[in-house]
Every structure is written in C-alpha cells, then in structure tokens.
C-alpha cells in the first residue's frame, strides 16, 4: 500500500486555480513531510499537463492511483459538482473540506462533506450546511440559516439570519438576502438563481431567477 495520500482539486479553471493555494496551505505540514501529493483533475483527457506548477490528470487516471485519494470539486455548475462527487464516492475517493486560514467559523454549526470556504468568508452560529457548498471570497452566512446541497455563493454574498437555501441554488456576486424570522424563514427554492447585486426581500420559488433591488422575478424554468 502506498504511503502517500493523493489530493485532487477537480477542475483546473479559474476557481480551481483559486482553490489550489488553499489546499496547499491546509496541507502544508503533510506536504513538507512528503506524505501527500496534489493534482488538478479533469474529466476526459487533459489539454494541458501542468497548471500553476501542479500536474493535471484525467479523472479516470486519478481513481486508479494507489493509496488513499481525497477530492474537492472546484466547479461552479452544481449539477456537474453533484455528478462528479457521486462518481468519486463510487470509486472510494473521500471528499475533504477546505477552510481558508482567515475564514471565521463560530459556534454550533453542522457541515456535510466537501465544504469550501474561500478567504474572508464567515459562518456565524447555528448554521446547517449540506454537501459541497461553495462560499466564495467575502461571503457570509449568518445565524440559524439552513443551506442545502450543492449551493453556490459567488463573491460577496450576504446571507442574513433565518434563511433557508435549498439544493442547487446559485446566489450571484454581491447579492443580499434579507433576514427571515425564526417562525417564518425566508426561503430560496431549489435551483433558484439570485442575480448579481440583487437584494432579496421575500422568498424565491424553486427554479426561478430573480434580479434587481428589490429582487423581482425575471424568469421561471417551470
């Protein structure tokens, strides 16, 4: 059995290149001891074989490496994130969460697999977060929020307290979500999209795109 563990950032695009330094930072002591190796991993045959000095490997090759394999999925498309993570679970690869060194995480929070907190992010208290949540730079989640699986926060999202965000929702750069009430939480429905800079003052139905200040329905996919 290999004595080296293999860690993959799935996706070598812009976000993947932002995530890799966070992985390196988090695994600094293991890297210095020669206990881990880092890769970018892509679906299909890679068009390049090195990205920012790290090897780029096909997903099919990564799953066949000896030893323990760990992954994070740095791809914005939540459906792709779900599909790839499911595939890697089937290959007995293990997800890992990333906490930037200057992220703030307060009390009594519950996190599922694959959490990714970019620099300057904050999770306050009594927050529940599902699988493979992405919080990009300068985003925060306030108290008593419930975040579903495969939810994406673009940079600078402000999610105030007592909000429910259901699976696969996408919250655009700089959006603000008004605080709900403990007995009447504001809900962003499954697969909903909140546009860049929008101010959400009331619940958003599933598969609906909202834009503006205050946010209004732009289209509904149902």
From TrEMBL:
A Pfam cross-reference name: PglD_N
SUPFAM superfamilies: Trimeric LpxA-like enzymes
Phylogenetic lineage: Bacteria, Pseudomonadati, Pseudomonadota, Alphaproteobacteria, Hyphomicrobiales
Superkingdom assignment: Bacteria
InterPro entries xref list: AcTrfase_PglD-like, PglD_N, Trans_hexapeptide_repeat, Trimer_LpxA-like_sf
Family, similarity comment: Belongs to the transferase hexapeptide repeat family.
Protein's name according to its UniProt entry: Acetyltransferase
Domain PglD N-terminal: 8-85
């Amino acid at each position: 059995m290999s004595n080296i563990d293999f860690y993959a950032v799935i996706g070598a695009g812009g976000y993947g290149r932002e995530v890799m330094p966070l992985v390196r930072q988090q695994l600094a002591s293991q890297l210095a001891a020669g206990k881990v190796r880092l890769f970018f991993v892509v679906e299909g045959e890679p068009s390049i074989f090195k990205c920012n000095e790290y090897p780029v490997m096909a997903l099919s090759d990564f799953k066949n490496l000896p030893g323990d394999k760990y992954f994070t999925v740095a791809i914005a498309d939540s459906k792709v994130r779900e599909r790839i993570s499911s595939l890697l679970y089937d290959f007995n690869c293990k997800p890992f969460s990333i906490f930037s060194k200057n992220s703030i995480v307060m009390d009594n929070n519950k996190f599922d697999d694959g959490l990714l907190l970019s620099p300057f992010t904050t999770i306050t208290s009594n927050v529940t977060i599902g699988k493979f949540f992405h919080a990009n730079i300068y985003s925060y989640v306030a108290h008593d929020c419930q975040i579903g699986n495969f939810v994406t926060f673009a940079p600078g999202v402000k999610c105030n307290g007592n909000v429910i965000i259901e699976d696969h929702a996408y919250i655009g750069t700089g959006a603000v979500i008004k605080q709900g009430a403990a007995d009447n939480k504001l809900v962003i429905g499954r697969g909903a999209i909140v546009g860049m800079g929008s101010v959400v003052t009331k619940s958003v139905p599933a598969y609906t795109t909202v834009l503006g200040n205050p946010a209004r329905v732009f289209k509904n996919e149902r």
